[in-house]
Structures are given as C-alpha cells and as structure tokens.
Write a structure and sequence with these properties.
- By secondary structure, the protein is mainly α.
- It has a single domain (7-189, 197-441), classed as Vanadium-containing Chloroperoxidase, domain 2 (Orthogonal Bundle).
- It is 46% helix and 4% strand.
- It has 14 helices and 6 strands.
- The protein has helices spanning 7-10, 56-69, 77-99, 117-133, 146-156, 164-180, 241-253, 263-271, 276-290, 295-323, 328-333, 364-380, 402-416, 421-441; strands spanning 19-22, 41-42, 140-141, 144-145, 388-392, 395-399.
- A hairpin with a 2-residue loop joins strand 3 (140-141) and strand 4 (144-145).
- Helix 2 (56-69) runs antiparallel to helix 3 (77-99) and helix 12 crosses helix 14 (421-441).
- It is elongated, with a radius of gyration of 22 Å.
- The two termini are 28 Å apart.
Length: 454
C-alpha cells in the first residue's frame, strides 16, 4: 500500500513531510545511560500534543515518545525501545480487545458493553506510562503532569472518565506491565569483566567507563524465542580482506582530525547521533497518519514497529557481548598487534564521535533502524510516495525510501568513526530478520475465535 499524497492531507503545496525535532546532540547507541538521553527531543517533549490535532493512538504515541526521550528519564536507546513497546502493546491490546480486528499480544477478557476503543486506548497509554515513569516531577509534558494530560485528552475527545473502556484499557496496560516486570531489564546493568580483554580483536573499556547494559541480551524478548535466535556469524578475522578494507576506510574517513570526510558527511554523522526512537518515531507518525488507518490498524502498526525495535535491541546486545569485538579506536591504536601487515598503526587516532562504552559488533543503530524500516516498508511499501524529511538540531536529511535512510545510517556510523562498515551491514540485516519474524508471529488478523481474538 502506498502513502496517500500529502496534498490531500495538508494542502496542495505540501509534498514534503517536515518532522522538526530539536535539542542537543546525543550519544546514539549509548555513551552511558544518562548521556544517551541528551538525544534530540521532539518538540512535543516541551509541550504535550494537542489532543484534538490527531487521533488518540498517534497522540499518545507522541506523548510516550516525549517522556521516553526526556533526559530526566535516563534511558539508553535500547531501553527506549522497550518502554515504547510496552506502551504500544498496551494500547493495541486495549483497542483490539474491543474491536477483535487483530490478535492481542496477551489474552484479554471480554470487554464491557459500550466500551469505547478511544477511551480504552487513552487509559492504556496513560496507565503504562504511569507504570514506567510515575506521575511525579519528571513525568511532565510541557507544564502538565501525566495525570493532567490524561484528563485533558479524555475531555478533548468527548469521553467520560466513567466510560467502560477506561477500566478495560487499564487492565490491558496492567497486564503488559506485569508481563514485563521480571524480564531481566532491571538487572541488565552490572559490573562486567571482559573475557580476554587486552587480546587483539577483543573489546576493552576505554577510560574505565562501565560497560553499557551488558545483560541486555538476556532481556526476555517480546516475540523472539531468545536473544540469540538471529545471532550473526562471527565478525571478520583480523587478517581478512573485509577487515582490512573496513579498517583502512574508517581509519581515513572516521578520524576526528585530518579526515577525508566532507562537510555533508560530517553532518550525516552528527544527525544520526540521535537515538533510533528520536529519528524513526516521527517518521512512523507521518507514514501511519498519511494512510488513514482505522483505530485498530493504527494501534497495531505502532505496536509491531516497537515490538520489532525492542527485540532487535535484545538480539543486537546479545551478539555484542557474545563476540566482544573491539572498537575502531582501540583497533587502530593497536594496528601493529593484529597480525595484519595491511593495517598500519596510529597511536593517536581518535574518532569523530566519541566511542560508545560497549562492544562494536554488530551496530545497534543500524539494527534498530533496519527493524523499524522493515516494518514500515512491509506495511506501506519501501517508497512511501513522498519525500521523507527529518530535521534534527538544524540538520535536515531527506530520503525517498526507507531503504535509503537505512543505507545512510550505515554510512553515518563509518563517518562517525565508531563502527566498521561490515558491522553496520550485519546490524541492519539482523534488524530485518527480527522484524520479519515479529510480523509473521505477532498481532495477526483475527480470522476466528481464540483467546486473543475474543
């Protein structure tokens, strides 16, 4: 299905989607949990979405993204995808537990008579966000608390706080919160001793920065059977042609000073420092809204989008800490120790973007981007029929297809000096594999009776 021309949506002259996001630069895959949250934040992070400007599903998706991306939330990018998945699954189950259009993620009881899907969606979104962030001083959208945003949303959509859908939505939210309460996410950060640290090819912490979420690969996936289900083959040997090619490419173009990198390539590297949620959620908003989906299909689209992203995060982190492959910064400074006479050492080599505190292979950003793009292209076609445009911190990027955006993030991580090209390509491929599995195993159309369709 192709996206409807935007001229039919927002006027004859509007053929470009403009998704304006601002704030400071971010550590993409995580430069420490708190640092990861200086990501570019959507404008809705400073003022809650107007509840009359969009349908309730997109409205609360944007509210969820705003809270998830706030620096005060202190979530690394992989944690962001989990939080968004919890919210969107709760909303999906609340809506489709009433409409019966798509299988719910968890079995739902029968909805009460007269339950409004809109009311259920609002209640589920609020309840999951409350469970994740509370309603205190950090859970603020603009100048309103989460509770105030909830009350305003009900009122703006003409819904009563006593609507039968409210309790049904809360029940769906509480069910997914309970399901994820013991998924090992809370114990994923711990002191990690790198096996074989100091051996050529093995990742070693820089400046004694703690390893970021070494246990995230053990987080229970939403749909995958295990985090290792799509574990890629080992990274290229240090004396291989692929490693030699990637080493010399990034040594030249990814260095901070004296690089062959163009101004445009530096801008691309800087742009993609934002987390996958910060970049891809606004794109999903526009694509989904432009297709005029009903409430059931809209809820499902967001849920699948983040189920794939969250499981891709787990799969990627499982592989990272399984292989413990070294980063370009360490590799190039130890180029005389790798047994490869075509990789010259540079003892002072420094990347354009600071090296993240976790193993290199595969790339986390391309993994998430590959999964998110695959879901959107599977639903709406790879070429959405209008230019995709995103502006972050004054840098605007445009693409004509989802694949084009993924190709750009692959390049961006090389320009940044933090990932070998093969690791980017493997990450994107793993993300697509995860997304394909999610699409074929979760939230399928209801074609009869069952515990998830009744």
């Amino acid at each position: 299905m192709r996206i409807k021309p935007l001229s039919k949506l927002v006027g004859a002259a509007a053929f470009i989607w403009s998704i304006i996001v601002f704030s400071g630069m971010a550590c993409t895959e995580g430069c420490g949990v708190a640092a990861a949250n200086t990501a570019q934040l959507p404008d809705l992070a400073t003022s809650a979405v107007s509840p009359v400007s969009t349908n309730v599903i997109t409205e609360w998706n944007q509210n969820a993204a705003a809270l998830t991306l706030l620096p005060a939330s202190a979530l690394a990018p992989v944690q962001q995808t989990r939080a968004m998945a919890i919210v969107q699954v709760g909303v999906h189950d609340a809506v489709n537990g009433i409409t019966f259009k798509f299988e719910t993620y968890l079995p739902q009881g029968p909805p009460p008579a007269g339950a409004s899907p809109d009311a259920a969606a609002i209640a589920a979104a609020h309840q999951t966000l409350f469970g994740l962030f509370g309603d205190g001083p950090f859970a603020v959208l603009g100048n309103r608390t989460l509770g105030q945003v909830y009350a305003d949303s009900l009122a703006a959509h003409g819904l009563s706080p006593n609507d039968p859908g409210i309790e049904f939505g809360r029940s769906a939210a509480n069910a997914i919160l309970a399901e994820r309460a013991n998924d090992h996410a809370a114990v994923a950060q711990f002191d990690y001793a790198v096996p074989g640290a100091g051996t050529p090819g093995v990742w070693t912490r820089i400046n004694n920065a703690p390893a970021l979420l070494p246990g995230w690969g053990n987080v229970t996936p939403f749909v995958l059977k295990s985090g290792s289900q799509f574990r890629p083959d080992a990274p290229p040997a240090l004396n291989s042609d692929v490693y030699t090619r990637d080493y010399n490419e990034i040594k030249d173009i990814g260095r901070q000073v004296g690089s062959s990198r163009t101004t445009l390539q530096s801008q691309i590297a800087t742009f993609w420092r934002a987390s996958p949620t910060a970049i891809w959620n606004p794109i999903a908003n526009q694509v989904i809204s432009a297709n005029g989906l009903d409430i059931s299909s809209t809820a499902r689209a967001y849920a699948l989008f983040y189920l794939a992203a969250s499981d891709a995060s787990v799969a990627c982190w499982e592989a990272k800490y399984y292989y413990n492959s070294w980063r370009p910064q360490l590799a190039i400074r130890a180029g005389d120790l790798d047994g490869n006479d075509q990789t010259d050492v540079d003892l002072t080599w420094t990347p354009f973007v600071a090296t993240p505190p976790h193993p290199e292979y595969p790339s986390g950003h391309t993994d998430n981007s590959g999964a998110m793009a695959f879901v959107l292209s599977s639903m709406f076609g790879n070429e959405p029929g209008a230019t995709l445009e995103v502006t972050l911190s004054g840098i605007t990027r445009q693409w004509n297809s989802f694949d084009q955006a993924v190709d750009e993030v692959i390049d961006a991580r090389v320009f940044s000096g933090i990932h070998f090209r093969n690791s980017d390509e493997v990450g994107a491929r793993q993300g697509r594999q995860v997304a394909q599995f999610v699409l074929t195993h979760a939230l399928r159309p209801c074609r009869g009776q069952g515990s998830r369709c009744s």
